[in-house]
Amino acid sequence: MNKDKFSPALEKVLTMMCEIIGVKYEDIDFDYEEWYMQYDWTKEQQDQFKQDLYQAITDSPKFFEDLFASKGSKRLLKAQIEFFIMSYGWKTHYNIEH
């Protein structure tokens, strides 16, 4: 993924994703094929990202259009966010107590 070819909407999503784990967007090498495997986040951080992204998109219909290249429905938005995280989200680590 060449950072220079990102749309402003995608850049905003990736920046949000970086900020939630304390990493600068500019420091990520998106030319590396598995860039999303270089960092991880907790389930709580992932859930917060989902909530923040959903809110940002629903607050701005233009952002929604720019991100998904269509006028989508809010009904499908959560599924689209889940798909994005499954495809490009950081590795998730869980705090499991035995």
List the helices and strands and how they pair.
Layout (H helix, E strand, L loop, with lengths): L7 H12 L20 E3 H17 L1 H8 L5 H15 L2 E3 L5
Parallel strand pairs: 1-2
Helix pairs in contact: 2-3, 2-4
What does this structure look like?
This protein is mainly alpha-helical and 98 residues long. The protein has one domain. The chain has helices spanning 8-19, 43-59, 61-68, 74-88, and strands at residues 40-42, 91-93. It has a two-stranded parallel ribbon. α2 crosses α3 and α2 (43-59) crosses α4. The longest helix has 17 residues, at 43-59. It is globular and about 35 Å long.
What's the short version?
The protein is mostly helical and 98 residues long.
- Rounded to the nearest angstrom, the distance between the terminal CA atoms is 39 Å
Structural class: mainly alpha
Give the proportion of residues in helices.
40-55%
Label the overall shape: globular
Radius of gyration: 14 Å
SSE ordering: HEHHHE
Widest β-sheet, arrangement of strands? 1-2
The total count of helices amounts to 4
Low-confidence stretches: none
Residue fraction in strands: 5-15%
Could you report the average pLDDT, rounded to the nearest whole number? 87
Number of domains as seen in the coordinates = 1
Number of strands: 2
Main sheet specs: 2 strands, parallel
